[in-house]
Amino acid sequence: MSAKIQGMQALLAMRNIGPKSVPQLLEVGITSPDDLRNYGAEETFRRLYFRFCDEHKFSLNYLYALEGANLDCDWRWLPVERKQELKEYFNGLKQGKKDSKV
Q1: What is the mean pLDDT of residues 65-85?
Q2: Mean pLDDT across the chain, nearest whole number?
Q3: Amino acid 13: pLDDT
Q4: Are 42 and 75 in contact (CB under 8 A)?
Q5: What CATH number should be reported for the domain holding residue 58?
Q6: Number of structural domains, the chain?
Q7: Could you tell me which of 94, 91, 89, 100 has the C-alpha nearest to residue 40?
Q8: Hey, how many other C-beta atoms are within 10 angstroms of the C-beta on 55?
Q9: What is the pLDDT at residue 97?
C-alpha cells in the first residue's frame, strides 16, 4: 500500500475527520495524523482557509474538529476556554482575510 493511501486512511481514522476533509488536508501538506498534531489545529486551519476560502465556507466547527482530532475527543467536548481561544483565532483570521481584499 502506498504511503499516500496509508496517510489518507490514518487521517480518516481520526475522530472528527471525514472523507471530504482528507483531500483538503492532503492538498495543504497534512499527510498524516502526526502532521496534524505537529502543525496544530490553528496552523492547519490557516492553511485550509487561505487555500480553499474562495471555494468553500469554512466554519468555526471545522477548527474545533481539527482540535478535537488532535486530542482524540469529540469537538463538542473541548473545554470552553479552548473553544474561546479558537473562536478568537477564527475571527482574527476572517478579519485578516477581509482586510487583505481591500
Answers
A1: 97
A2: 90
A3: 96
A4: no
A5: 1.10.150.20
A6: 1
A7: 89
A8: 8
A9: 64
Instruction: Return the HEC string of the chain.
Output: CCHHHHHHHHHHCCCCCCCCHHHHHHHCCCCCHHHHHHHHHHHHHHHHHHHHCCCCCCCHHHHHHHHHHHHCCCHHHCCHHHHHHHHHHHHHHHHHHHHHCC
Give the domain range for residue 17: 3-100
Stretch 24-38: mean pLDDT: 96
Residue pair 26/8 in contact (Cβ under 8 Å)? The answer is yes
Q: What share of the chain is helix, strand, coil (3-state, %, to 5)?
A: 70, 0, 30
Count of other CB atoms within 10 angstroms of residue 23: 10
Model confidence, pTM: 0.89
Of all residues in the chain, the percent with pLDDT exceeding 70 is: 92
